[in-house]
Specification:
Elements lengths: L15 E2 L2 E2 L25 H30 L3 H16 L12 H12 L1
Amino acid sequence: MANDNSFLAQPSSTRMFDGKKKPKQVFSYTKSDSSIFPSYTHLSLPFCVICRQRYWGACKEQRRQFISEVAAQELLQSKALDGVRVHREFCQYIFSKPSSKEKITLTSAEERRLHRLLDS
């Protein structure tokens, strides 16, 4: 009965098989050159991730720059109402996206007429 339980988890140095000690196995994660806690010093991100981070960073910087320039133009207006008009014209869709109700839809005849007017 004691031999039937020999398959249970025991330290590898005390496992018995036919009365002989089984040699101790060295697993790949127990070697000195590997670790279960890997080092991230050689980690490199894919180029598409780097480009996406640069792109979004540039978008945020351009938006911040645009808003600061519009604010400077608002302050340069001689009348308060002119400053409000500048803000409404340039910042309406910067701070909030246009709703689907505001989208202009034209029929095919209206589109042809618009293109004809723009081309002339």
